[in-house]
Amino acid sequence: MTRPETGNPTTFMAREIAEIPAAAGRLLAEGEAARIGAGLRDRAFPFAVLCGRGSSGHAGVHLRYLIETRLGLPVSAAAPSVVTGYDRPPQVAGALFVVISQSGRSPDLVAATEAARVGGALTLAVVNDPDSPAARASDLVLPILAGPERAVAATKTVTNSLVAGAALVAAWAGDGQLGQGLSALPERLDRARALDWSAWTTDLAQAPAAFVTGRGHGLGPVREIALKLAETLRLPALGYSAAELRHGPRASVSAATPVLALRQADPLAEGVDALVRDLAGDGVRVQACGGPLGSLPWIGDGHPACDPIAMLVPAYRAIEAEARRRGLDPDAPAGLTKVTETL
Question: Is-annotated flag, keyword Transmembrane (predicted)?
Fold first, then answer.
């Protein structure tokens, strides 16, 4: 098992999860996201394009909901292979192009950003390394200030990417309530660290696969938790919208495939509650966070765009602990490296 060099008897992943509240506080106090967001108010964009893979792509899903709900601006997800494989630069003149990447080094993300900039988009890099190639390819750079991250399974860089996107939109849209929610978030993240979600990971013990569900602002975190189950526990896991899960995927959900549901207090909450009731009524093992049907410990409702970020923390902690219980190394999942370079 990999151990931090300090001799602290925890994994790097555990230590980095513990650093999440301080990292978020540092990012918000520095204020660069708010400054960039305020600068975007004077620009008119026909649409925005978000570019990222894996955990960074999940942060992009959260950012998409924020941009579309707070600014009414349509958002598209970039497909970097259109540039790198098909050699077809997109028509993005006047658009905002946001690349989200922990390392900022993957050649496909860099190439897509360069093509967007040449094509007339305003490019913004949300990165942990402000000197990375993706940052150098961008007009604007928003460092997420997460600090070094040693575990392959990203945690604090993911939460800080989500926080950075939310702070950007709060300033861009002049959304005071979202700003207040962000101000409270570091303390809520710290409280969320104490929550024990082992009841959920106990359900996963003999499961051949698992599902994670939610809606709206929760969808990015839903997909992120499913990814962490796959890469850290080697457990096939899928993250679906609570609306989508009622369609074709419902046929593969059974008592053998546990479901985790994230529920924030917003207009989509009843849809998540209804799905939890229906699945439980069909004998599916469902653990829910938030709302009247919540079975997992929670800190109570805060801002609905910020709560799904905080829900990542107890999920990360539970997954890290379950990996160790299974004899797996959460710092170095099989076949993976910290920086993945794709074309």
Answer: no
